[in-house]
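Researcher: Going back to the complex we discussed earlier. I've cleaned up the inputs and rechecked each line, so this should be the final set. Can you rerun the prediction on the complete assembly and write out the structure?
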Amino acid sequence: MQTISAVFTYTFKEHVRHKAWLSSALFGFILLGGALVISALGADERPRLMLDLGLAGIEAITLVSIVFLTVNLILQEIESRAIYLILTHPVRRSDYLLGRFLGTLAAAALGMAIMAALHLVLLGLYGWWEPGRYLAALLCTLGKAGVMGSLALLLSLALTSEAAAMAFSVFFWMLGHFSSEMRFLADRSGSAFIKTAIVAFSHAAPDFAHFNYRDFWHATAPGAQWLMWAGVYAVAYAGACLALSVQLFEQKEF
Amino acid sequence: MKYRALAVAAVLFAVSLAAGTAMRALYEPRFPPLAELQGGAFAFQDASLAAAGFRAPAADLAWIQLLQYAAGSLPEYVDAPGKGYEHLAKLSLRVARLDPSFNRAVLFGAGILAWFHGVDRPDEAAELLRDGMRMSPDQKLYPLYIAALAYKKKGDSDRMIALLESSFDQPETPSTMKAILANLRQSRGELKEALVLWIRILENERDASEHGRARAKIVELRAALRGRQGKKQVDGRKHQ
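Model: Rerun complete. Updated structure for the full complex:
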Protein backbone atom coordinates (compact mmCIF):
# COMPACT_ATOMS: atom_id res chain seq x y z
CA MET A 1 0.00 0.00 0.00
CA GLN A 2 2.88 2.29 0.87
CA THR A 3 4.45 1.64 -2.52
CA ILE A 4 1.20 2.37 -4.33
CA SER A 5 0.83 5.61 -2.36
CA ALA A 6 4.41 6.69 -3.15
CA VAL A 7 4.03 5.94 -6.87
CA PHE A 8 0.61 7.62 -6.84
CA THR A 9 2.03 10.86 -5.34
CA TYR A 10 4.98 10.90 -7.71
CA THR A 11 2.75 10.30 -10.77
CA PHE A 12 0.18 12.88 -9.68
CA LYS A 13 2.85 15.56 -9.20
CA GLU A 14 4.51 14.60 -12.48
CA HIS A 15 1.27 15.06 -14.43
CA VAL A 16 0.18 18.26 -12.75
CA ARG A 17 3.56 19.83 -13.52
CA HIS A 18 3.47 18.54 -17.09
CA LYS A 19 2.83 21.03 -19.89
CA ALA A 20 0.33 18.71 -21.55
CA TRP A 21 -1.89 18.65 -18.45
CA LEU A 22 -1.68 22.42 -17.99
CA SER A 23 -2.43 23.11 -21.66
CA SER A 24 -5.38 20.70 -21.63
CA ALA A 25 -6.79 22.50 -18.56
CA LEU A 26 -6.30 25.81 -20.38
CA PHE A 27 -7.98 24.40 -23.47
CA GLY A 28 -10.85 23.28 -21.23
CA PHE A 29 -11.32 26.85 -20.03
CA ILE A 30 -11.35 28.02 -23.64
CA LEU A 31 -14.04 25.43 -24.43
CA LEU A 32 -16.11 26.64 -21.46
CA GLY A 33 -15.76 30.21 -22.79
CA GLY A 34 -16.85 28.88 -26.19
CA ALA A 35 -19.91 27.27 -24.59
CA LEU A 36 -20.77 30.63 -23.04
CA VAL A 37 -20.56 32.37 -26.43
CA ILE A 38 -22.36 29.66 -28.43
CA SER A 39 -25.15 29.36 -25.87
CA ALA A 40 -25.97 33.04 -26.47
CA LEU A 41 -27.27 31.92 -29.89
CA GLY A 42 -29.67 29.44 -28.29
CA ALA A 43 -32.37 32.01 -27.43
CA ASP A 44 -34.79 30.44 -24.89
CA GLU A 45 -32.53 27.45 -24.34
CA ARG A 46 -29.40 29.26 -23.16
CA PRO A 47 -29.02 27.47 -19.79
CA ARG A 48 -29.52 24.08 -21.46
CA LEU A 49 -26.90 24.86 -24.11
CA MET A 50 -24.44 26.14 -21.53
CA LEU A 51 -24.93 23.02 -19.46
CA ASP A 52 -24.65 20.53 -22.35
CA LEU A 53 -21.77 22.19 -24.17
CA GLY A 54 -19.84 22.84 -20.97
CA LEU A 55 -20.17 19.23 -19.76
CA ALA A 56 -19.31 17.94 -23.24
CA GLY A 57 -16.21 20.16 -23.29
CA ILE A 58 -15.13 18.90 -19.85
CA GLU A 59 -15.64 15.29 -20.93
CA ALA A 60 -13.81 15.72 -24.24
CA ILE A 61 -10.79 17.34 -22.57
CA THR A 62 -10.72 14.75 -19.78
CA LEU A 63 -10.85 11.87 -22.22
CA VAL A 64 -8.23 13.27 -24.57
CA SER A 65 -5.89 13.94 -21.65
CA ILE A 66 -6.43 10.57 -19.94
CA VAL A 67 -5.91 8.61 -23.18
CA PHE A 68 -2.79 10.63 -24.02
CA LEU A 69 -1.38 10.30 -20.50
CA THR A 70 -2.09 6.59 -19.96
CA VAL A 71 -0.86 5.52 -23.39
CA ASN A 72 2.47 7.21 -22.65
CA LEU A 73 2.49 6.22 -18.97
CA ILE A 74 4.61 3.07 -19.22
CA LEU A 75 5.76 3.18 -22.85
CA GLN A 76 7.77 6.37 -22.33
CA GLU A 77 9.45 4.92 -19.25
CA ILE A 78 10.35 1.81 -21.22
CA GLU A 79 11.73 3.94 -24.06
CA SER A 80 13.73 6.20 -21.76
CA ARG A 81 14.83 3.10 -19.78
CA ALA A 82 13.79 4.81 -16.53
CA ILE A 83 11.76 1.70 -15.76
CA TYR A 84 14.95 -0.32 -15.19
CA LEU A 85 15.90 2.00 -12.37
CA ILE A 86 12.45 1.79 -10.76
CA LEU A 87 12.16 -1.96 -10.99
CA THR A 88 15.58 -2.49 -9.40
CA HIS A 89 13.92 -1.27 -6.19
CA PRO A 90 11.74 -3.66 -4.17
CA VAL A 91 8.60 -2.56 -5.98
CA ARG A 92 5.99 -5.06 -7.10
CA ARG A 93 5.05 -4.51 -10.72
CA SER A 94 1.33 -4.59 -9.92
CA ASP A 95 1.77 -1.90 -7.21
CA TYR A 96 3.78 0.22 -9.58
CA LEU A 97 1.17 -0.05 -12.35
CA LEU A 98 -1.74 0.62 -9.99
CA GLY A 99 0.00 3.64 -8.44
CA ARG A 100 0.80 5.05 -11.87
CA PHE A 101 -2.77 4.57 -13.10
CA LEU A 102 -4.44 6.00 -9.99
CA GLY A 103 -2.09 9.01 -10.02
CA THR A 104 -3.02 9.68 -13.64
CA LEU A 105 -6.73 9.32 -12.93
CA ALA A 106 -6.41 11.67 -9.94
CA ALA A 107 -4.65 14.28 -12.11
CA ALA A 108 -7.44 14.00 -14.70
CA ALA A 109 -10.05 14.27 -11.92
CA LEU A 110 -8.37 17.39 -10.57
CA GLY A 111 -8.49 18.98 -14.03
CA MET A 112 -12.16 18.03 -14.29
CA ALA A 113 -12.92 19.47 -10.85
CA ILE A 114 -11.30 22.82 -11.71
CA MET A 115 -13.18 23.07 -15.02
CA ALA A 116 -16.44 21.98 -13.35
CA ALA A 117 -16.08 24.63 -10.62
CA LEU A 118 -15.76 27.34 -13.25
CA HIS A 119 -18.64 25.85 -15.24
CA LEU A 120 -20.89 25.78 -12.17
CA VAL A 121 -20.09 29.43 -11.44
CA LEU A 122 -21.06 30.35 -15.03
CA LEU A 123 -24.27 28.30 -14.78
CA GLY A 124 -25.07 29.90 -11.43
CA LEU A 125 -24.80 33.32 -13.06
CA TYR A 126 -27.57 32.24 -15.46
CA GLY A 127 -29.79 30.96 -12.67
CA TRP A 128 -29.10 27.23 -13.08
CA TRP A 129 -28.32 25.46 -9.84
CA GLU A 130 -28.69 21.68 -9.46
CA PRO A 131 -25.39 20.63 -7.88
CA GLY A 132 -26.58 17.10 -7.01
CA ARG A 133 -27.39 16.12 -10.57
CA TYR A 134 -24.34 17.98 -11.84
CA LEU A 135 -22.15 15.92 -9.52
CA ALA A 136 -23.83 12.73 -10.80
CA ALA A 137 -23.00 13.74 -14.39
CA LEU A 138 -19.40 14.48 -13.42
CA LEU A 139 -19.07 11.11 -11.66
CA CYS A 140 -20.31 9.36 -14.79
CA THR A 141 -17.74 11.26 -16.84
CA LEU A 142 -15.06 10.25 -14.34
CA GLY A 143 -16.26 6.64 -14.62
CA LYS A 144 -15.91 6.84 -18.39
CA ALA A 145 -12.44 8.37 -17.99
CA GLY A 146 -11.45 5.56 -15.61
CA VAL A 147 -12.64 2.84 -18.00
CA MET A 148 -11.04 4.57 -20.99
CA GLY A 149 -7.76 5.15 -19.14
CA SER A 150 -7.45 1.52 -18.05
CA LEU A 151 -8.32 0.34 -21.55
CA ALA A 152 -5.73 2.70 -23.09
CA LEU A 153 -3.13 1.41 -20.62
CA LEU A 154 -3.93 -2.19 -21.53
CA LEU A 155 -3.75 -1.39 -25.24
CA SER A 156 -0.43 0.44 -24.84
CA LEU A 157 1.07 -2.61 -23.11
CA ALA A 158 -0.43 -5.06 -25.58
CA LEU A 159 0.40 -3.17 -28.75
CA THR A 160 3.66 -1.49 -27.56
CA SER A 161 3.01 1.37 -29.98
CA GLU A 162 1.68 4.77 -28.90
CA ALA A 163 0.01 5.51 -32.22
CA ALA A 164 -1.70 2.11 -32.44
CA ALA A 165 -2.83 2.29 -28.80
CA MET A 166 -4.32 5.76 -29.32
CA ALA A 167 -6.07 4.70 -32.54
CA PHE A 168 -7.57 1.63 -30.85
CA SER A 169 -8.58 3.69 -27.82
CA VAL A 170 -10.53 6.05 -30.08
CA PHE A 171 -12.05 3.00 -31.78
CA PHE A 172 -13.20 1.57 -28.43
CA TRP A 173 -14.50 4.99 -27.41
CA MET A 174 -16.71 5.08 -30.50
CA LEU A 175 -17.68 1.43 -30.11
CA GLY A 176 -18.68 2.06 -26.51
CA HIS A 177 -21.30 4.51 -27.73
CA PHE A 178 -22.65 1.98 -30.20
CA SER A 179 -23.73 -0.57 -27.56
CA SER A 180 -27.44 0.27 -28.08
CA GLU A 181 -26.92 0.21 -31.85
CA MET A 182 -25.28 -3.19 -31.63
CA ARG A 183 -28.21 -4.58 -29.68
CA PHE A 184 -30.55 -2.96 -32.24
CA LEU A 185 -28.59 -4.74 -35.01
CA ALA A 186 -28.74 -8.00 -33.08
CA ASP A 187 -32.54 -7.68 -32.79
CA ARG A 188 -32.79 -7.16 -36.55
CA SER A 189 -30.45 -10.00 -37.43
CA GLY A 190 -32.03 -13.21 -38.75
CA SER A 191 -29.08 -15.45 -37.99
CA ALA A 192 -28.82 -16.78 -34.44
CA PHE A 193 -25.03 -17.00 -34.72
CA ILE A 194 -24.63 -13.37 -35.79
CA LYS A 195 -27.10 -12.28 -33.14
CA THR A 196 -25.15 -14.08 -30.39
CA ALA A 197 -21.84 -12.76 -31.70
CA ILE A 198 -23.09 -9.15 -31.77
CA VAL A 199 -24.62 -9.41 -28.29
CA ALA A 200 -21.42 -10.95 -26.90
CA PHE A 201 -19.32 -8.23 -28.54
CA SER A 202 -21.62 -5.48 -27.26
CA HIS A 203 -21.20 -6.83 -23.71
CA ALA A 204 -17.43 -7.16 -24.03
CA ALA A 205 -16.95 -3.60 -25.29
CA PRO A 206 -17.29 -0.82 -22.69
CA ASP A 207 -20.89 0.37 -22.51
CA PHE A 208 -20.58 4.14 -22.69
CA ALA A 209 -24.02 4.70 -24.22
CA HIS A 210 -25.55 3.89 -20.84
CA PHE A 211 -23.09 6.15 -19.08
CA ASN A 212 -24.10 9.46 -20.61
CA TYR A 213 -25.95 10.85 -17.61
CA ARG A 214 -25.44 14.37 -19.00
CA ASP A 215 -27.44 13.33 -22.10
CA PHE A 216 -30.28 11.78 -20.08
CA TRP A 217 -31.29 14.41 -17.59
CA HIS A 218 -33.37 16.56 -19.91
CA ALA A 219 -35.73 13.57 -20.03
CA THR A 220 -36.35 11.47 -16.91
CA ALA A 221 -32.91 10.99 -15.40
CA PRO A 222 -31.99 7.63 -13.86
CA GLY A 223 -32.10 7.28 -10.08
CA ALA A 224 -29.60 6.60 -7.30
CA GLN A 225 -29.76 2.81 -7.73
CA TRP A 226 -28.74 3.17 -11.38
CA LEU A 227 -25.85 5.40 -10.33
CA MET A 228 -24.69 2.76 -7.87
CA TRP A 229 -24.69 0.04 -10.56
CA ALA A 230 -22.97 2.41 -12.98
CA GLY A 231 -20.25 2.93 -10.36
CA VAL A 232 -19.87 -0.84 -9.85
CA TYR A 233 -19.69 -1.31 -13.62
CA ALA A 234 -16.99 1.34 -14.08
CA VAL A 235 -14.86 0.08 -11.19
CA ALA A 236 -15.19 -3.57 -12.24
CA TYR A 237 -14.53 -2.93 -15.94
CA ALA A 238 -11.53 -0.67 -15.21
CA GLY A 239 -10.32 -3.22 -12.65
CA ALA A 240 -10.54 -6.04 -15.22
CA CYS A 241 -8.51 -3.99 -17.73
CA LEU A 242 -5.95 -3.13 -15.03
CA ALA A 243 -5.64 -6.79 -14.00
CA LEU A 244 -4.99 -7.72 -17.64
CA SER A 245 -2.43 -4.89 -17.84
CA VAL A 246 -0.72 -6.27 -14.73
CA GLN A 247 -0.65 -9.73 -16.34
CA LEU A 248 1.01 -8.30 -19.48
CA PHE A 249 3.38 -6.09 -17.49
CA GLU A 250 4.50 -8.98 -15.28
CA GLN A 251 5.29 -11.09 -18.32
CA LYS A 252 7.45 -8.39 -19.90
CA GLU A 253 11.17 -8.93 -19.65
CA PHE A 254 13.29 -5.87 -19.04
CA MET B 1 0.20 -17.91 -9.23
CA LYS B 2 1.49 -17.00 -12.67
CA TYR B 3 -2.02 -16.29 -13.92
CA ARG B 4 -3.49 -14.74 -10.75
CA ALA B 5 -4.02 -11.38 -12.47
CA LEU B 6 -5.81 -13.13 -15.31
CA ALA B 7 -8.18 -14.82 -12.85
CA VAL B 8 -8.83 -11.48 -11.12
CA ALA B 9 -9.58 -9.94 -14.55
CA ALA B 10 -12.07 -12.70 -15.34
CA VAL B 11 -13.89 -12.25 -12.01
CA LEU B 12 -14.00 -8.46 -12.38
CA PHE B 13 -15.21 -8.76 -15.96
CA ALA B 14 -18.04 -11.05 -14.79
CA VAL B 15 -18.95 -8.46 -12.13
CA SER B 16 -18.95 -5.72 -14.78
CA LEU B 17 -21.26 -7.82 -17.00
CA ALA B 18 -23.70 -8.30 -14.10
CA ALA B 19 -23.54 -4.60 -13.16
CA GLY B 20 -24.02 -3.58 -16.82
CA THR B 21 -27.11 -5.79 -17.08
CA ALA B 22 -28.54 -4.29 -13.85
CA MET B 23 -27.75 -0.78 -15.11
CA ARG B 24 -29.51 -1.38 -18.44
CA ALA B 25 -32.51 -2.98 -16.71
CA LEU B 26 -32.96 0.10 -14.51
CA TYR B 27 -32.68 2.66 -17.27
CA GLU B 28 -32.74 2.45 -21.04
CA PRO B 29 -32.07 5.76 -22.82
CA ARG B 30 -34.84 6.60 -25.26
CA PHE B 31 -32.72 7.78 -28.18
CA PRO B 32 -33.75 6.82 -31.71
CA PRO B 33 -31.13 4.60 -33.40
CA LEU B 34 -28.46 6.34 -35.46
CA ALA B 35 -30.11 4.95 -38.59
CA GLU B 36 -33.01 7.34 -37.95
CA LEU B 37 -30.80 10.43 -38.03
CA GLN B 38 -31.55 12.63 -41.01
CA GLY B 39 -29.43 12.94 -44.11
CA GLY B 40 -28.75 16.31 -45.67
CA ALA B 41 -26.22 19.07 -45.22
CA PHE B 42 -25.55 18.35 -41.54
CA ALA B 43 -25.52 14.53 -41.64
CA PHE B 44 -21.79 14.26 -40.95
CA GLN B 45 -21.96 16.72 -38.05
CA ASP B 46 -24.87 14.84 -36.46
CA ALA B 47 -23.46 11.35 -37.02
CA SER B 48 -19.97 12.15 -35.74
CA LEU B 49 -21.22 13.90 -32.59
CA ALA B 50 -23.77 11.17 -31.84
CA ALA B 51 -21.19 8.44 -32.44
CA ALA B 52 -18.79 10.14 -30.03
CA GLY B 53 -21.49 10.16 -27.35
CA PHE B 54 -22.48 13.81 -27.60
CA ARG B 55 -26.14 13.56 -28.55
CA ALA B 56 -27.42 16.40 -26.37
CA PRO B 57 -24.73 18.85 -27.58
CA ALA B 58 -25.44 17.71 -31.17
CA ALA B 59 -29.13 18.53 -30.62
CA ASP B 60 -28.13 21.91 -29.15
CA LEU B 61 -26.11 22.78 -32.26
CA ALA B 62 -28.99 21.58 -34.45
CA TRP B 63 -31.31 23.87 -32.44
CA ILE B 64 -29.04 26.87 -33.14
CA GLN B 65 -29.08 25.97 -36.85
CA LEU B 66 -32.88 25.69 -36.71
CA LEU B 67 -33.09 29.19 -35.22
CA GLN B 68 -30.69 30.47 -37.89
CA TYR B 69 -32.89 28.91 -40.58
CA ALA B 70 -36.04 30.46 -39.07
CA ALA B 71 -34.25 33.82 -39.11
CA GLY B 72 -33.37 33.26 -42.79
CA SER B 73 -29.62 33.02 -42.32
CA LEU B 74 -28.72 29.37 -42.87
CA PRO B 75 -26.99 29.13 -46.28
CA GLU B 76 -27.31 25.31 -46.41
CA TYR B 77 -31.13 25.55 -46.47
CA VAL B 78 -32.56 28.36 -48.54
CA ASP B 79 -36.29 28.47 -49.28
CA ALA B 80 -37.51 28.51 -52.87
CA PRO B 81 -39.39 31.70 -53.78
CA GLY B 82 -42.93 31.58 -52.45
CA LYS B 83 -42.23 28.55 -50.24
CA GLY B 84 -41.49 30.05 -46.85
CA TYR B 85 -40.19 27.72 -44.12
CA GLU B 86 -40.21 24.70 -46.47
CA HIS B 87 -37.40 22.99 -44.49
CA LEU B 88 -38.70 23.94 -41.04
CA ALA B 89 -40.39 20.62 -40.22
CA LYS B 90 -37.33 18.65 -41.35
CA LEU B 91 -34.93 20.77 -39.28
CA SER B 92 -37.19 20.64 -36.20
CA LEU B 93 -37.43 16.89 -36.46
CA ARG B 94 -33.64 16.69 -36.82
CA VAL B 95 -33.26 18.19 -33.34
CA ALA B 96 -35.83 15.80 -31.85
CA ARG B 97 -34.21 12.77 -33.45
CA LEU B 98 -30.88 13.69 -31.92
CA ASP B 99 -32.45 14.26 -28.51
CA PRO B 100 -36.16 13.43 -28.15
CA SER B 101 -36.34 15.39 -24.89
CA PHE B 102 -35.71 18.60 -26.85
CA ASN B 103 -39.48 19.13 -27.12
CA ARG B 104 -39.17 22.85 -27.61
CA ALA B 105 -37.75 22.35 -31.14
CA VAL B 106 -40.83 20.43 -32.28
CA LEU B 107 -43.22 22.88 -30.58
CA PHE B 108 -41.34 25.80 -32.11
CA GLY B 109 -41.53 24.30 -35.63
CA ALA B 110 -45.18 23.28 -35.28
CA GLY B 111 -46.09 26.70 -33.83
CA ILE B 112 -44.62 28.54 -36.81
CA LEU B 113 -46.08 26.14 -39.40
CA ALA B 114 -49.57 26.31 -37.93
CA TRP B 115 -49.97 29.82 -36.55
CA PHE B 116 -47.26 32.09 -37.91
CA HIS B 117 -48.65 34.92 -40.00
CA GLY B 118 -48.60 33.98 -43.70
CA VAL B 119 -47.44 30.37 -43.27
CA ASP B 120 -50.63 28.44 -42.37
CA ARG B 121 -49.60 24.80 -42.94
CA PRO B 122 -51.49 22.99 -40.12
CA ASP B 123 -51.23 19.54 -41.73
CA GLU B 124 -47.45 19.72 -41.79
CA ALA B 125 -47.50 20.96 -38.19
CA ALA B 126 -49.73 18.05 -37.11
CA GLU B 127 -47.39 15.57 -38.83
CA LEU B 128 -44.42 17.09 -37.02
CA LEU B 129 -46.22 16.91 -33.67
CA ARG B 130 -47.16 13.26 -34.27
CA ASP B 131 -43.48 12.47 -34.97
CA GLY B 132 -42.53 14.30 -31.80
CA MET B 133 -45.15 12.40 -29.82
CA ARG B 134 -43.81 9.06 -31.12
CA MET B 135 -40.33 9.93 -29.83
CA SER B 136 -41.39 11.59 -26.58
CA PRO B 137 -44.79 10.15 -25.57
CA ASP B 138 -44.70 11.72 -22.09
CA GLN B 139 -44.71 15.28 -23.38
CA LYS B 140 -48.18 16.69 -22.67
CA LEU B 141 -47.91 19.70 -24.96
CA TYR B 142 -47.90 17.61 -28.15
CA PRO B 143 -51.50 16.35 -27.79
CA LEU B 144 -52.50 19.81 -26.59
CA TYR B 145 -51.12 21.42 -29.75
CA ILE B 146 -52.74 18.73 -31.92
CA ALA B 147 -56.08 19.47 -30.24
CA ALA B 148 -55.55 23.20 -30.83
CA LEU B 149 -54.85 22.42 -34.50
CA ALA B 150 -58.14 20.51 -34.69
CA TYR B 151 -59.97 23.59 -33.34
CA LYS B 152 -58.14 25.73 -35.90
CA LYS B 153 -59.31 23.45 -38.72
CA LYS B 154 -62.88 23.64 -37.39
CA GLY B 155 -62.60 27.42 -37.30
CA ASP B 156 -63.15 27.52 -33.51
CA SER B 157 -60.56 30.20 -32.73
CA ASP B 158 -61.85 30.92 -29.21
CA ARG B 159 -61.28 27.38 -27.98
CA MET B 160 -58.02 27.13 -29.90
CA ILE B 161 -56.61 30.24 -28.23
CA ALA B 162 -57.93 29.21 -24.80
CA LEU B 163 -56.24 25.83 -25.17
CA LEU B 164 -52.93 27.30 -26.31
CA GLU B 165 -53.02 29.89 -23.52
CA SER B 166 -53.43 27.13 -20.95
CA SER B 167 -49.85 26.08 -21.80
CA PHE B 168 -48.49 29.63 -21.73
CA ASP B 169 -46.57 29.21 -18.47
CA GLN B 170 -45.29 25.71 -19.21
CA PRO B 171 -41.47 25.77 -19.35
CA GLU B 172 -41.46 23.93 -22.72
CA THR B 173 -43.61 26.54 -24.47
CA PRO B 174 -41.34 28.36 -26.93
CA SER B 175 -41.11 32.14 -26.60
CA THR B 176 -41.98 32.43 -30.31
CA MET B 177 -45.25 30.58 -29.66
CA LYS B 178 -46.08 33.00 -26.84
CA ALA B 179 -45.41 35.93 -29.18
CA ILE B 180 -47.62 34.28 -31.85
CA LEU B 181 -50.43 33.96 -29.29
CA ALA B 182 -50.14 37.59 -28.25
CA ASN B 183 -50.24 38.61 -31.91
CA LEU B 184 -53.28 36.38 -32.50
CA ARG B 185 -55.10 38.20 -29.69
CA GLN B 186 -54.10 41.55 -31.19
CA SER B 187 -55.24 40.56 -34.69
CA ARG B 188 -58.67 39.72 -33.20
CA GLY B 189 -58.83 43.21 -31.70
CA GLU B 190 -58.37 41.89 -28.14
CA LEU B 191 -55.79 44.50 -27.24
CA LYS B 192 -56.11 44.16 -23.45
CA GLU B 193 -55.56 40.40 -23.57
CA ALA B 194 -52.63 40.86 -25.99
CA LEU B 195 -51.10 43.44 -23.62
CA VAL B 196 -51.40 41.04 -20.67
CA LEU B 197 -49.64 38.31 -22.66
CA TRP B 198 -46.76 40.61 -23.68
CA ILE B 199 -46.36 41.69 -20.05
CA ARG B 200 -46.18 38.03 -19.01
CA ILE B 201 -43.53 37.45 -21.68
CA LEU B 202 -41.54 40.42 -20.39
CA GLU B 203 -41.75 39.16 -16.82
CA ASN B 204 -40.45 35.69 -17.72
CA GLU B 205 -36.65 35.43 -17.79
CA ARG B 206 -36.76 32.41 -20.12
CA ASP B 207 -38.36 34.57 -22.80
CA ALA B 208 -35.42 36.97 -22.92
CA SER B 209 -35.20 36.56 -26.70
CA GLU B 210 -38.64 38.21 -27.03
CA HIS B 211 -38.13 40.94 -24.42
CA GLY B 212 -37.12 43.60 -26.97
CA ARG B 213 -40.26 42.94 -29.03
CA ALA B 214 -42.37 42.74 -25.86
CA ARG B 215 -41.27 46.21 -24.74
CA ALA B 216 -42.11 47.71 -28.14
CA LYS B 217 -45.45 45.89 -28.26
CA ILE B 218 -46.42 47.02 -24.76
CA VAL B 219 -45.81 50.64 -25.72
CA GLU B 220 -47.78 50.15 -28.97
CA LEU B 221 -50.69 48.38 -27.29
CA ARG B 222 -50.92 50.86 -24.41
CA ALA B 223 -51.07 53.71 -26.94
CA ALA B 224 -53.73 51.85 -28.94
CA LEU B 225 -55.76 51.19 -25.78
CA ARG B 226 -55.51 54.85 -24.75
CA GLY B 227 -56.62 55.82 -28.27
CA ARG B 228 -59.55 53.40 -28.06
CA GLN B 229 -60.53 54.72 -24.62
CA GLY B 230 -60.32 58.31 -25.86
CA LYS B 231 -62.51 57.41 -28.84
CA LYS B 232 -65.06 55.77 -26.53
CA GLN B 233 -65.18 58.88 -24.36
CA VAL B 234 -65.72 61.12 -27.41
CA ASP B 235 -68.45 58.78 -28.68
CA GLY B 236 -70.06 58.79 -25.22
CA ARG B 237 -70.11 62.57 -25.11
CA LYS B 238 -71.63 62.67 -28.61
CA HIS B 239 -74.45 60.37 -27.46
CA GLN B 240 -75.09 62.58 -24.40
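Model: Worth noting: The longest helix of chain B spans residues 211-239.
Researcher: Good, that matches what I expected from the previous run.
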